Design the sequence.
């Protein structure tokens, strides 16, 4: 269908809901660039979201996240579920450029109408995702994907924003990454509903598996009744002989078990409430900041405030109080 | 807040197993501040164009080092037309006889770079010719 590049925004949302790839693709660019009209677009998309299974995959670079997702896509497609994937890779802090290399692993679904893959640069956002990832997931939901898989960039210990986007968080680790003290640390280990020990054919995998299980077992004793018990699943996502790939069925089973658990318990509702509250706060903060800054624009007051603070004639706390006081008195926001 | 980045899909096509050039170009474009989706080897014209659609790419770059450039160039151009990608730039690179350059341009490639081209030349070319 030629000539669709000059799409009118109001048509895009309608086409998206009918499953149109080009519309999805254009909309994602719009929210990614944060251009004017992005919020208006998302208002139209929002009512069509909330029905998909949201699966997050995180873990260090090279642990096998993309390869595991490749297997998961295949399994979901066998169940005739439509799959959307958003894969984040890091942007350069110097040039803003990015090499988005996750798609390489998914190209065998290149011609499958039921699979849509989008790569994103993190563009300076630090939580393991990109700023627009939440909105991109919504677009993929509204497009009609039954499952949306979110792949974080290579994440270490504290890039845990995935928990605010995904319902089920899968942490991928490999043998040889440190002792059980590493596994006892706070942060990313705590957010995982499932831990995949990938490359389980490597030396040291057995000991690693036992120490991960021991850490989870210890934590399990402190968990409230009825709460989900995280599991460790050993996998081999890539092998020289395809027959040596293992653990994929167990992973799918565990993933579906966690989804079922979410739906049988108040888990999903509670998580949704937390997620919406957090998002509301973030959007509110963004909007307020934009509003305040645009109020100072061109008045020369910003520069004046900066000078005052640097010369210690004023301090940042008092400046914020002053500006906020003025802003809140103005009736038009 | 608003930021637009040039997005490029870089790929090999067919049975050509020489990916060093494509990787070098991908890295150079990344260093030039572009977002580069790297597809790797053994791709089909349909798969490359599908990736460009999903990624909303501004540029498709294909590297040929196995003599299949006159076979795949028209197929990629046709597939781009079929998918309404007329405003996406299609850039070809690799090793081929110089007399094939005008032939590929005639087939619909926007620009052709042979091995030995200055790296800055294709960064500049993309920056100047991106259509959106």
Sequence:
């Amino acid at each position: 269908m030629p000539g669709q590049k000059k799409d009118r925004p109001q048509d895009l949302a309608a086409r998206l809901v009918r499953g149109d790839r080009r519309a999805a693709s254009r909309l994602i660019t719009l929210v990614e660039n944060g251009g004017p009209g992005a919020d208006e677009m998302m208002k139209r998309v929002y009512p069509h979201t909330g029905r998909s299974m949201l699966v997050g995959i995180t873990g260090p670079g090279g642990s096998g996240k993309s390869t595991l997702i490749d297997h998961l896509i295949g399994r979901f497609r066998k169940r005739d579920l439509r799959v959307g994937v958003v894969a984040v890779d890091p942007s350069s802090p110097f040039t803003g450029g990015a090499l988005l290399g996750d798609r390489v692993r998914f190209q065998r679904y290149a011609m499958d109408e039921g699979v849509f893959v989008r790569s994103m640069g993190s563009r300076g956002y630090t939580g393991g995702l990109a700023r627009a990832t939440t909105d991109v997931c919504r677009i993929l939901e509204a497009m009609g994907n039954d499952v949306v898989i979110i792949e974080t960039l290579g994440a270490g210990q504290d890039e845990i924003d995935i928990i605010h986007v995904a319902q089920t968080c899968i942490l991928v680790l490999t043998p040889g990454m440190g002792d059980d003290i590493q596994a006892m640390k706070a942060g990313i280990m705590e957010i995982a509903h499932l831990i995949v020990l990938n490359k389980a054919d490597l030396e040291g995998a057995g000991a690693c598996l036992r120490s991960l299980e021991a850490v989870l077992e210890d934590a399990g004793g402190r968990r409230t009744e009825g709460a989900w018990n995280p599991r460790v699943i050993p996998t081999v996502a890539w092998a020289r002989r395809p027959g040596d790939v293992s653990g994929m069925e167990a992973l799918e089973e565990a993933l579906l078990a966690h989804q079922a658990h979410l739906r049988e318990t108040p888990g999903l509702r509670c998580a949704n409430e937390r997620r919406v509250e957090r998002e509301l706060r973030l959007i509110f903060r963004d909007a307020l900041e934009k509003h305040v800054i645009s109020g100072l624009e061109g008045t020369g007051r910003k520069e004046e405030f900066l000078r005052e603070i640097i010369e210690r004639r004023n301090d940042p706390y008092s400046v914020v109080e002053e500006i906020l006081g003025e802003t809140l008195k103005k009736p038009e926001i | 807040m608003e930021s637009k980045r040039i997005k490029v899909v870089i790929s090999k096509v067919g049975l050509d197993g020489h990916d060093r050039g494509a990787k070098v170009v991908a890295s150079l474009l990344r260093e030039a501040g572009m977002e580069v989706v790297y597809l790797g080897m053994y791709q089909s014209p349909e798969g490359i164009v599908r990736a460009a659609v999903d990624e909303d790419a501004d540029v498709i770059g294909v590297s040929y080092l196995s003599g299949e450039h006159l076979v795949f160039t028209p197929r990629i151009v046709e597939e781009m037309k079929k998918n309404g990608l007329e405003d996406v730039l299609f850039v070809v690179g690799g090793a081929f006889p110089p007399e094939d350059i005008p032939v590929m341009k005639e087939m619909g490639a926007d620009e052709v770079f042979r091995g030995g081209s200055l790296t800055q030349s294709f960064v500049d070319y993309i920056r100047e010719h991106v259509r959106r």
